[in-house]
Amino acid sequence: MRKRIFSTGISAVLIGSMLLTACGGNSSGGSSSSAGAAGETSTAATGDSSAAAESADPFGKYDPPINMTFARTVDNDLNDNILPKTPGETIDSNRWLDLYSDELGIDISYAWTVRGGLNDDAYTQKLNVTIASGDLPDVLIVNRTQLKQLAESDMIADMTEFYDQYASELTREVYNSEGPGILQSATFDGHLMAVPYADASVESTHYLWIRQDWLDKLQLDPPKTMQDLLNIADAFTTRDPDGNGKDDTYAMAVTKDLYSGAMGTEGFFAGYHSYPNMWVKTDDGTLAWGSVLPETKDALKALADMYAAGELDPEFGIKDGAKVAETIAAGKVGIDFGEQWNPMYPLISNYQNDPEADWVGYPIVSADDTLPKVPQKFRTQWYYAVRKDYENPEAVVKLINMHLEKNWGEDNDFNHYYMPVENGAVGVWKFSPVAPAPTNKNLEAFNEIEKARKLGDMSILEGEPAVIQTNLEAYYNGDTTQWGWDKIYGENGVFHALNGYIENGQVMREEFVGAPTPTMVDKQSSLKTMELEMFVRIIMGDVSIDEFDKFVENWNALGGADMTAEVNEWYQSVKN
């Protein structure tokens, strides 16, 4: 029997280090989501269901088979990359749909498909029209706002009982891996109203990406403190790091949107103990919007000073990520705060244009003697909602069980169902209409590779770590298209920094995971726009840093105070 790729031992360390609730020992075998408004989705909450739970089979096959309809997206990767490399397979006929039919007796078809991703307007518009019509497919993938609408309209099934009875051991491990938050986010008045499309909050972690070749040329050490970083920023701007004799380099890549997985500012703000654009716990135990706390003013002042010194692109306030990526590709920037995937985009474009460009990921740094907390935004944003009158709502739980088991379970077939090497290691998992994954799988893959490196035996690798190692070896053998894999998973890969964050207790998870509150629905969009516009104006020197105080007053008066009260009402209901 193959070992399980999803390592419960490593997950337990992660959970303990992040001060999360230890859910694995829940004697009921169910979720340990909290009670109250976000309620506990345990078997006890579903009444007399223990007998049914004993007979429920997480992988039981329907005989005769059942039909299940979905609505889904077809993104560019699936249409332009995966389908051409998997001849004979289509959206409607492929290895995943065959698996679900053969092993579970679930025949899947699509009520409709739309090109693009879940976040694209095309899907949002088609989904909203479908919801308004009341003519729903059996399963819809919806966001939190749409989930709340469907739940309040009594259009979807209560999944509490079905999750408790049918979720496999591995499914429970995945859905409890961030504490109660994942299940909690789909729970209304104690009822689990959808099964979340579990996503990894750990992947929102920011790192400090720096051009190591510029550091070496200017004889600078990697930064240990914020002052070190500011000194490096000055050098990257004034000491001609690209050696062309021109004053044409900037220190740090920043987009007009400020908050971003690449070319963002979250890691910089964290260096001043500021955590904007997320709900954080304050010293008095209540939740607050990080953008309006005093530390944010300090970080904005530092960014404004950098802008005034020419260390940021003077046009950053009008440049989106694509435009800033062009500056990186041209070799004009040497610092980037972003997530682990940044070497895949946009940093590789710099390397492709200049093979000497050597980007290395470092931990974020602090402006004082206290290690910065590292913010992790709650990433689970989509949910599998089942039409209320569908005869077999538990079937969606079985699909999730099977998807996780075939990719990361003890009897996994990762190479066939996730990234088949014979098909160019494309992500055939996208053929599946359900696609949750272990939230810590990437870090665990890195740690497995590290273990094999130390043992000097790569043959022990299986599943995803083995596929990643294949990409690493391709790079070492001259395939420069695999450069990004080395920057993430190689001997000096950025996941070393993530392990350090965890060991040092630096991780800070977003505290609010509930459905949008009434004021959020009405006011949050305009408040975020006001925040972004004010912060950009402060950084660019259009207004004084003291305008931050007026912004906080206006934010509270225009709905922020009400929103904060609603968030804390939710928080108290979860705690009690």
Automatic annotation (TrEMBL):
SUPFAM superfamilies: Periplasmic binding protein-like II (SSF53850). The keyword Phosphoprotein does not apply. Keywords: Signal. Residues 30-60 are annotated as: Disordered. Residues 1-22 form the signal peptide. Residues 30-56 have a biased composition (Low complexity). Belongs to the bacterial solute-binding protein 1 family. PANTHER family: ARABINOSE-BINDING PROTEIN-RELATED (PTHR43649), SN-GLYCEROL-3-PHOSPHATE-BINDING PERIPLASMIC PROTEIN UGPB (PTHR43649:SF31). This is Carbohydrate ABC transporter substrate-binding protein (CUT1 family).
